[in-house]
Amino acid sequence: MIYRESGQFKTSYQNDSVIFPIKQDRMFIFALLALAAFVVPMFASEYMLSGILIPFLVLSLAALGLNILTGYAGLLSLGSAAFMAVGAFATYNFLVRVPGMPLLLALVLGGLCAAAVGILFGLPSLRIKGFYLAAATLAAQFFVEWVLTKFSWFTNHSASGVISSPPLEVFGIALDTPVSKYLFTLAVVVVLALAAKNLVRSSTGRAWMAVRDMDVAAEVIGIPILKTKLLAFAISSFYFGIAGALYAFILLGTVDAQAFDLHRSFQILFMIIIGGVGSILGSFLGAAFIVLLPIVLNLLGQLLHGIVSTQFLSNLEMMIFGGLIIFFLIVEPLGLAKMWQITKEKLRLWPFPH
Amino acid sequence: MNPNRKIGDVILKAENISMSFGGVKALTNISLEVREHEVLSIIGPNGAGKSSMLNVINGVYHPQEGKVTYKGRTRDKMEPHLAAKQGIARTFQNIALFKGMSVLDNIMTGRNLKMHTNFLQQAWYWGRTQREEIKNRKVVEEIIDFLEIQHVRKTPVGRLPYGLQKRVELGRALAAEPTLLLLDEPMAGMNVEEKQDMCRFILDVNDEFGTTIVLIEHDMGVVMDISDRVVVLDYGKKIGDGIPEEVRQNPAVIAAYLGTSH
Amino acid sequence: MEFQFFLEVLVGGLLAGVMYSLVALGFVLIYKASGVFNFAQGALVLFAALTFVGFQNMGLPFWAALIITLGVMVLMGIGIEKIVLRRLVNQPPISLFMATIGLSFFIEGLAQMVWGTEVHGLELGITDEPFEVGGVFISSFDLFAAGISGTLVAVLALFFQKTKLGRALRAVADDHQAALSVGIPLQHIWAIVWAVAGFVALVAGLLWGSRLGVQFALTLVVLKALPVLILGGFTSVPGAIVGGLIVGAGEKLAEVYLGPYLSGGIENWFAYVLALVFLMVRPEGLFGERHIERV
Question: Which residues of B touch C (CB under 8 A)?
């Protein structure tokens, strides 16, 4: 009843293959984007922008990357944060060492560096699969963390191992207010999300899913397995790299290699498990969840002020995350995205049961 | 069967193929020929090595001895993606569909070798990629029509009944427009009607497109009806090779199937 | 003099390696019996150590604390099997693995909530005086720890090979359905396995805890068990021993001899990179079973 699809028949293959086939969905998305781009900057507080929306966008980007690698291509990775670190540090070096380097170009180059490292650590995927590959990605995580900490060249020989964001500007506009940072991040994330969705619905996406579901059959069809897997590593690492750079410069301002540790890798993994593996929407839902939960718990803590300590709350947070992962894996392995889909289907018929 | 069908020259020749897994000898000194446009059946009791033989032909298994000549080129072993590029497509005994994707996507995946846009073009989508997608979608829809599975085209294949899944797998193999089609027990687990439908599809493919077909099948009625020639395997060895009538009267074949002690 | 130093480092590394083996053993047990790689083993080690120390700090004598903690760990193991694993039986192993990641977060959060996050010292009553063997200094604590670990590993290896229960465990690891069909009580077996894993976690927790102090970093030690398993093979108890020795010795030697050139910290990643190399060359490990994929 809420969803009126009647009368919306597709009369050409072109119409059938758009991203949002139902007209109401299309209008909803456009409205949402317009809201995000025009309304939010006018009314949102600084805390809302810097504390909720920008982290949400940046982490969604990382979740998108992991969804490409693990959700669509089926290659479990426990080292996503390492590639974020590569992107952040590479972008930093490009900005700082090359005079006059435009920000966008530095970002792209940082992403490409992350992609290159991703390909390198993706080479084992030729011979090892599944859980063993996950173990190999741990090697990436620890090794990259060590390299970036030990060799001070990466931090431009800073004494504390920290890199700080130089003043940022794009097309002559300085990115020094939360609003400008927010809009820049929004633009980057929307473009990359669109690219991801396009990739996933073309033959590359199908090749990834084929390799994920049954790689012997994929090979028999003629899909080049190694190339497909390496492409997944490269593209997902590119996304990780850009997310890392945005995290370092737009979100935090200063960062050291420890910000991209194993804990961060797990955080991104949790995002896609909760949000939904193999789903673009799921990346956003999961990121939103992970960003909002600590805030909700914090509010709860303030309400129960004095009764519970912050220590208690952060431990509770850990327990809730762990418990939720288990819950989702048992009850709805396809996460919030699948729950949303089921809700939509129910809404099409509501108030009728079938 | 179309009596005007012309069977051509030998397109695939396997010579002295021997293969073992660890201590188990799956194939012993098998030689066979497949001629263009014909329908060849491989039959034999369970465990005779029929699937292994198909796997050797399209490179999933590598034999320890022997060679395979396909379209004039002789190789010690075939690689699966090379086989695909050279026009060999197949279905599997235990349905190797991509369970996470819909029927349409599964068959579209079969078109993968025909699609040439790179990932950058695909990230942009509108333009070259979209045109290619639509072009290939048209071909896939024709296959869907042919196999009469329009009503389930957007369903995830994991949810389909067994018979329909087998049809989708055939569709995916056909999507590659193969020269040689290898079918591993395409009618296993089907009832009479489904079998008739499947037979019809196989014969139509052979008829209209001239696709050479090698199939493994247990149903003797089907085998005798649609095959041009039959090869019989038992315990990894070839015990019969010829037109259906000959093979039916071959004493070794009768013994194998009736289970006289070896 | 050089050679003596080398021996000292080697022996130190080997002894640490035996302790890695002990931790790896917990993983092998669960993997052998249920095909699940239990990422939460680390959290169990931390929990066990924290619980023991917690009871000790409450004034309980050594043996009482030990027995009660043992009981807690066994109950925990059985609880995990009942509440989490049973519900996930039909899912692919990768989902089970991710569930154990979730479990590890849960247990860690719980442990710290109940017992606090400060570093605790753990006294086992064994002094760490070095003694000399042929000019080489060996830590007596390391030796003691190695002895306990070695004994436990040997006992468990024998158990798997020689006893009826051990055979049942191996059957379950191979094929759940088949094991059920010959009458092996699946759930009992799993409960036993997780209880034993809890016990192993306790021993590991006590040994490592007294070496490093009981703190969050224990979970990182446990993560090192992964390279040990990759080298040794996931399903092999002797493999866990050999793998542990190689990782332990390799790490120490690399740190001492390569460290100065690369300004240290090699221990952080050496084991993992070694495992990576192994995965490329011999994925099933030194003692693991080769997996042949039939189509």
Answer: 21-22, 51, 55, 60, 92, 96
* Phi-psi category of residue C127: left, alpha or beta, with phi > 0 → left and psi -120 to 50 → alpha: beta
Q: Do B21 and C292 touch (CB under 8 A)?
A: yes
Residues of C in contact with B53 (CB under 8 A): none
Which residue numbers in chain C have pLDDT < 70? 1, 90, 117-137, 173-174, 176, 212-219, 263-264, 289-295
Closest to A240 measured CA to CA, from A80, A57, A53, A67: A80
Residue A202 to residue B85, Cβ atoms within 8 A: no
How high is the pLDDT of residue C295? 45
CA distance A241 to A81: 9
Euclidean distance between CA atoms C208 and C122, whole angstroms? 9
Which pLDDT belongs to residue C128?
Answer: 63
pLDDT at C216: 62
Residues spanned by the domain of A122: 20-258
Q: What pLDDT was estimated at residue C252?
A: 84
> Is C295's CB within 8 Å of B96's CB?
yes
How does DSSP assign C103-127, residue by residue? Answer: HHHHHHHHHHHHH-SS-B----S--
Quickly tell me which residue has 């696709």 as its tokens: B211
Q: Read off φ and ψ for residue C68, nearest 5 degrees.
A: -65, -45
Residue A45: its pLDDT value, please? 83
- How much is the pLDDT for B262? 47
Query: What value does the mean pLDDT take over residues B188-205?
Result: 90
- List Cβ<8 Å contacts ≥24 apart for A284-290: A284/A60, A284/A63, A284/A193, A285/A335, A285/A336, A285/A337, A285/A340, A286/A63, A286/A335, A286/A336, A287/A56, A287/A59, A287/A60, A287/A62, A287/A63, A288/A56, A288/A60, A289/A336, A290/A59
Asked if B139 has any chain A CB less than 8 Å from its own CB, the reply is no
CB contact (8 A) between residue A199 and residue B119? yes
CA distances from C290 to A77, A164, A182, C257 (A): 24, 50, 52, 35
**Residue A142 forms part of a structural domain:** yes
Closest CA to B50 of B176, B233, B250, B189: B233
Distance, in Å, from the CA atom of B86 to the CA atom of B178, rounded to the nearest integer, reads: 8
Contact call for residues C148 and C205 (beta carbons, < 8 A): no
Average pLDDT value over all residues in chain A? 86
Regarding beta strands B180-184 and B212-216, do their DSSP bridges make them parallel or antiparallel, or are they unpaired?
A: parallel
A306: how many CB neighbours lie within 10 A of its CB? 7
Report how far apart, in Å, the C-alpha atoms of B138 and of each of A198, A203, B87, B89 are.
20, 15, 20, 20
Comparing A208 with B1, which gets the higher pLDDT?
Answer: A208
Could you tell me which chain B residue has the CA closest to the CA of A208?
B109
Q: Which domains does chain B have, with CATH numbers?
A: 1-87+178-262 (3.40.50.300), 97-177 (no CATH)
Q: Could you tell me the CA-to-CA distances from C12 to A288, B21, C208, C247 in Å, in that order?
A: 48, 44, 14, 12
Angle of CA points B102, B103, B106, to nearest 5°: 85
Domains and their CATH numbers in chain C: 2-281 (1.10.3470)
Mean of pLDDT values over A156-181:
78
Give the pLDDT of residue A151: 78
| Number of structural domains chain A divides into | 1
pLDDT single digits (tens) C204-260: 887 777 776 666 666 677 778 888 888 888 777 778 888 888 888 888 888 888 777
ipTM: 0.89
Instruction: Indicate the pTM of the whole model.
Output: 0.88
In degrees, rounded to 5, the angle at the alpha carbon of residue A294 between the alpha carbons of residues A292 and A298 is 115
Contact B48, B234 (CB under 8 A): yes
- Extract the runs of DSSP E, i.e. beta strands, from A249-345: 254-256
User: Per-residue pLDDT for B193 more than 60?
Assistant: yes
Across the interface, whether the CB atoms of C272 and A143 are under 8 A apart is answered: yes
Only one residue has tokens 């999300």, namely A193
